[in-house]
Amino acid sequence: MASTxxxxxxxxxxxRRLLLxxxxxxxxxxxxxxxxxxxxxxxxxxxxxxxxxxQRVVLAALSWAGTPYAWGGGNGQGPTLGFCDGVNGYLxxxxxxxxxxxxxxxxxxxYSWFQGTGGRVLLPHHSPDQLLAGRRVPLDRIIPGDLLFxxxxxxxxxxxxxxxxxxxxxxxxxxxxxxxxxxxxxxNPVWGPQLVAAARPDPAAxxxxxxxxxxxxxxxxxxxxxxxxx
Length: 230
Fold this sequence. Notes:
Mean pLDDT: 80
Low-confidence stretches: 1-5, 7-42, 207-229
């Protein structure tokens, strides 16, 4: 599967951040020229093991393409019955979640990473928490399996998808849709402007994380309360 990287859109690296980075590098030159070389190198390239895990994550997600969206649906074992919370899970004012077996966006990410790592990574069932649980990856250095996060300008994370390569992602969008592949995410008029971050869960770090509600398949939504973004 191709691993073409998403292009950075204007505004992802504000001028202030560039100036601060330039100042930081200038100070490094004065103190330790070798450190400057290391800083310019940027994030380490993904390892073969990371790429292999990412491919397994993608295959796990693709195996459920066409599955209905269900608010609150999905755990480490597969799609589950959703629910309605007074705001989410409805279509044209009628609750669909409480009789639909499927995934919401974070449920699909949870399932795919659980299966792709042989159960070593079980993410929380909440997209903002999934971003916090992963290692941030620059949007121009993502690989298949990385999680893509979306937010309205100035707002919280409200959606997550799984990068599949070639500029595309697979996601569970909203009630009334099915798990599907979205090509050219960065250029999509709806999702492109909302793409704000990417993260790569770390199986090694997950093994060191104490177990809690996030480690119980399907318990994320109930323990965290209503999702601010699935």
